[in-house]
TrEMBL record:
This is Ceramide synthase 5. It catalyses: sphinganine + octadecanoyl-CoA = N-(octadecanoyl)-sphinganine + CoA + H(+). Keywords: DNA-binding, Endoplasmic reticulum, Homeobox, Lipid biosynthesis, Lipid metabolism, Membrane, Nucleus, Transferase, Transmembrane, Transmembrane helix. It comes from the Eukaryota. The keyword Acetylation does not apply. The chain crosses the membrane at residues 36-56, 140-160, 180-199, 263-283, 303-324, 336-358.
Amino acid sequence: MAALSAWFWNERFWLPHNVTWADLADPAPGVEYPKAGHLFSALPLALGIFAVRILFERFIAGPCASFLQIQTELSRRAQPNAVLEKVFTSITKSPDSRHLEGLSKQLDWDVRKVQRWFRHRRNQDKPSTRTKFCESMWRFTFYLYIFTYGIHFLWQSPWMWDTRQCWYNYPYQVLTSGLYYYYVTELSFYWSLMFSQFTDIKRKDFLIMFIHHLATISLISFSYVNNMLRVGSLVMCVHDSSDFLLEAAKLANYAKYQRLCDFLFVVFGILFFWTRLIIYPFWILNTTLFESWDIIGPYPSWWLFNILLLVLQVLHIIWSYLIARIAFKAIMRGKNWFVFSFSHWLEGCSCLSASVLIELFRSFR
């Protein structure tokens, strides 16, 4: 076990040249550097956030839904049938014509009756608009809060105005209480999403969302351990800047305020393009790739960190292209581009990575 730990925490990988863990272990009085052990505090906080969410949805989001007259729809339930239920749960939820004919003969039912059973059974599992509203209202509240905190904190931080400050005296950069709180709160929220994913609205992209949350947790933890908190805080703030607008658009859609929904999504789209295609590459990648090279030089974990950020930028480009393509097709067909784009996608997901595209195209139905 000791050998595995020594291999994982190899100083030649994690730290710049001529820096050791011992150099960071005994800072001056009143000075603290990030330590891997700090990350364990995110787990109990994540459980606390999960508990707050349950109370929020019940005592705040629920009454808001009632005020907006968003009620739980009563869908028609499929009549009990052991054969069809087994097919539905084990084989397919949408049988093709061959399966339908086989089931029709087996049950001595009309094909259309079998189709109708599967349609009712699928609708039976769909979450109500009220449930989706409460979930989105929680996410909107958290995203708005964490973005407001992040922009307020960074506004007073020198590295927001001069990104070279992210690398001066690295890795001997002091961990302030504000930076610690920002990081641990973000990390705890994504841990809470890992927990709640098993009780949330079940979606087809469950595995993708699980991988997304895991990747986000890994990237936040990675940047914390090697004290890249300053540039990491910039990355988090840039990605948080549009999430609350997407959730706000969902809320407007569930409440049937279509014009407000359209407006919020347009603002979201503009901000998404601006932050992902302009600010992220020309501000953040510029400092992680070039300014850091000039000031501290490359080392193994530096390469890994930048490769992950570059992969994220590639995804930004793909998402933006697909969004623009759908919008262009909708405009060419002379329809309301927001309604048109989203009426053709299934119920969606929730934030910061590969799920954004699925989230964008599926969440408004």
